[in-house]
C-alpha cells in the first residue's frame, strides 16, 4: 500500500489553514483519504445540516405544489424568534388582542392562553380567527 502526505494550500493569508491530509492507495488502486477526527466530525455536521435543509426545501416545494399560500416573511421571522404563529399573525395584521377577542367572540384571556400554548384552538375558533385576520385557515396550523 502506498501512502502520501500533503498540505492543502490556503487561498489567502487570512484564510483558515487547512490540515495536513494523508492518503493511502489500496492494492486495487482506490485512493483513501485520512483526516483528523475533528475535521471528520465537522464534515458530518455540515452534511447533516445540508440534509435538514434539503428536507425543509422539499416540504416547502410540496406545499407550493399543493397551492398552499406561504406565510409572510415577517410572520416566519417572528415564529423563529419564539412567538406563536397566532401571535405573529395577529401582530402582522396589526390587531391587538382585545380587538381580535371582540371580533371573534373569544375572551382576551382565552386568546392570550391560545397564543401562549396553554389552550388548544377548536375548529370553530380557528375559522373565526382566520376570518377576523383575513388569512387562510391553514396558516393557523
Mean pLDDT: 88
Question: Residue share in helices?
Answer: 40-55%
Q: Based on CA inertia axes, which overall geometry fits?
A: elongated
CATH homologous superfamily of the domain at 73-135? Answer: lambda repressor-like DNA-binding domains
Report on the biggest sheet: 3 strands, antiparallel
Care to describe what's here?
With 141 residues, the protein is mostly helical. Among the domains are: 36-70; 73-135, 434 Repressor (Amino-terminal Domain), CATH 1.10.260. Helices cover 52% and strands 11% of the residues. It contains 6 helices and 3 strands. The chain has a 3-stranded antiparallel sheet with strand order 1-2-3, with no helix packed on it. Helix 2 crosses helix 3 and helix 4 (97-104) packs across helix 5 (108-115). The radius of gyration is 26 Å and the shape is elongated. Mean pLDDT is 88; it is low at 8-15.
Fold blueprint:
Elements (H helix, E strand, L loop, with lengths): L1 E6 L12 E6 L5 E4 L2 H30 L6 H8 L4 H8 L4 H8 L3 H8 L7 H11 L8
Antiparallel strand pairs: 1-2, 2-3
Helix pairs in contact: 2-3, 4-5
Which structural traits does this protein have?
434 Repressor (Amino-terminal Domain), 52% helix, single chain, 3 strands, 141 residues, mainly alpha
